[in-house]
Automatic annotation (TrEMBL), chains A, B:
This is Phosphoserine aminotransferase. It comes from Flavobacterium fontis. Residues 5-345 form the Aminotransferase class V domain. NCBIfam families: PRK05355.1. The gene is serC. GO terms for molecular function: O-phospho-L-serine:2-oxoglutarate aminotransferase activity; pyridoxal phosphate binding. One of its GO terms (cellular component) is cytoplasm. PANTHER family: PHOSPHOSERINE AMINOTRANSFERASE. Pfam families: Aminotran_5. Its EC number is 2.6.1.52.
Amino acid sequence: MKKHNYSAGPCILPQEVFEQSAQAILDFNQSGLSILEISHRSKDFIAVMEEARALVLELLGLEGKGYQVLFLQGGASMEFLRVPYNFMKVDGKAAYLETGTWAANAIKEAQLFGETEVVASSKAANFNYIPKDYTIPAEADYFHCTSNNTIFGTQMKSFPKTDVPMICDMSSDIFSRSLDFSQFALIYAGAQKNMGPAGTTLVVIKEELLGKTGRTLPSMMDYQKQIKGESMYNTPAVFPVYASLLTLQWLKKQGGIAGIEKINAAKAALLYAEIDRNPLFEGTAAIEDRSTMNATFLLKDPAHTEKFDALWKAAGISGLNGHRSVGGYRASMYNALPLESVQILVNTMQELERSI
Amino acid sequence: MKKHNYSAGPCILPQEVFEQSAQAILDFNQSGLSILEISHRSKDFIAVMEEARALVLELLGLEGKGYQVLFLQGGASMEFLRVPYNFMKVDGKAAYLETGTWAANAIKEAQLFGETEVVASSKAANFNYIPKDYTIPAEADYFHCTSNNTIFGTQMKSFPKTDVPMICDMSSDIFSRSLDFSQFALIYAGAQKNMGPAGTTLVVIKEELLGKTGRTLPSMMDYQKQIKGESMYNTPAVFPVYASLLTLQWLKKQGGIAGIEKINAAKAALLYAEIDRNPLFEGTAAIEDRSTMNATFLLKDPAHTEKFDALWKAAGISGLNGHRSVGGYRASMYNALPLESVQILVNTMQELERSI
């Protein structure tokens, strides 16, 4: 039976990425060798890394604008640490917007380095909205925000105008919608939503902003060293980077971000319309902040849980359970999830309604 | 044509690991989902992680001895940083043995944390031997060494007896030979030699030694947090961990470390015998310190280079070029390289001799 994978991450990737990457494990580029056994310094893999870095700049519209692209390891959580290492001056100060669990974790790491001002937080409302009225202190070394909150189903629809360098954790919505990406000093994202499998982290940096903190950095924390090493200061995560390249190539064929954005908008519109229409369900996030990537919703009457769960499981849907901090359901509709899968989910919601 | 892959890492893995992991990308455990798209919190992946951790302890003979196993990200270079974070006390001191480039890199990171004594170094001899007469200061918080030096083809055949906790970077020879692994406080290894593809790092820790430095640790640097999170404090490198499990399962079928050690010894004996016998070649490492994993050797007369390179390339051999710091050739004979491949290399060396 066809599966409809709503996993919040790692998550569904395009079918052709599965097929091409499986083939490369058996024989990469008709070399007679597996992608798993070649040197990262081989001509074939250097070409993979270079194409992946160039494609990221092309897809984000950042070519020729002074940005460098890195593929690192450790996930976004490692960037929570690298960000203050590289951007918070000795005796400096950072500003953070607290919109969810991951933002809170990023704040915790920054606090180890120096003064960390939380400019606004929606914690008291269990992060069900994005705070909008706040001031970013002009003297901050940087301002950090999280564009999409996977757990709580919220998404920043706009970003503040500020002269402070803006750093954004885009782990769960990068490559999903058009933005002026040049408003950011640094963008980072764990690969495992819209870019590839788990195991690599994308970092996009405005290079001229680096090297200004007065700190001595450990090698593995130093973005400048990683840039100089072209993401190969040490052995990179070869396979995750290769599978990410395949996913980026697929995205380009969909018309890039502009192309996929239309499909993502259609998927989100379809599901949220049903959540709002169907008397059995309700959304948990503030309507104006609803994420196009992760829709969080509840059954108004928990008594229907068993029946609904049986229905969507029977339809081949997986990964729909909500995070324990919110409960209910979370439908993650990343780039590779087809509109058809959302229609199947909507059908089961209507089936539940009819059956009661 | 059959390839004989002598790459220094990432390197050859067992053919069945390629086949099984390619299959899991198309359909993992007959779930209808790819290993690349499942949640790391899914039952199926938790089982992978648990089996991998248990198998490491079993293969190393460390079951029930107070050790914890982690699969982290960042490669051994990230452990160069995590080690002083977790083991060097505030105002403490570390002792390091300098046997190669990677040892030197580890030393550089430790120096950022506090007094770092290099107890001995073979740097002046371009690291062509392992220093043996040195004293580990009794007051050191730990002693760090590198068991095998990939670039220079040397290997520690024995380890010092000391009451100081011993930490060993075993990236390039773990799982290749029998040792009393319980003499180490901490063992770490980038996966991409004997354990799996690039993208995950194995860390094996004597747990009772942690938490004694007086330092406040960033979350991603904190071994105790990673232990508590069972290697899933954040999303792990799912596919590299899975392919590592497959490689560990393969190793167990070879009779574990004791089984593979015999084959590794036969491979090394065959190649070193030819290096010593053949008048055209010479080894670069001190004979008593020769690595069973990486054999480094030169053509006595560089004029034969073109001819020899053509011969081994024609035989299907790849990855034989030496590292730029040593030159000549490096034959990396990791666990998955069959004895047959070494025989092919020896044949080309003899062919060269006959042709001159």
